[in-house]
Amino acid sequence: GRAHEKIVNKGVNLSIVIREASNLSDINSLGGGHPPAAGTKIPINKLDVFLENCNKIVRNQLQNN
């Protein structure tokens, strides 16, 4: 996915989001990218937990910056 420049300027790094959410969701994938854009492959049975973890990580990034 892609993040708007305003979100990146507020401290969101999608590369970190994808990697950390994959780890927290027990997904063995090679996801990543850079702050405004990143991607990975997610098994359908892990999608909900992965998205929940992404939301938590983004929230934390916004609160800590």
UniProtKB/TrEMBL annotation:
Entry-linked Gene3D superfamilies: 3.10.310.30
Domain DHHA1: 8-59
Pfam annotation, one family: DHHA1
GO molecular function, one term: nucleic acid binding
Classification via SUPFAM superfamilies: DHH phosphoesterases
Protein's UniProt name: DHHA1 domain-containing protein
Organism lineage: unclassified sequences, metagenomes, ecological metagenomes
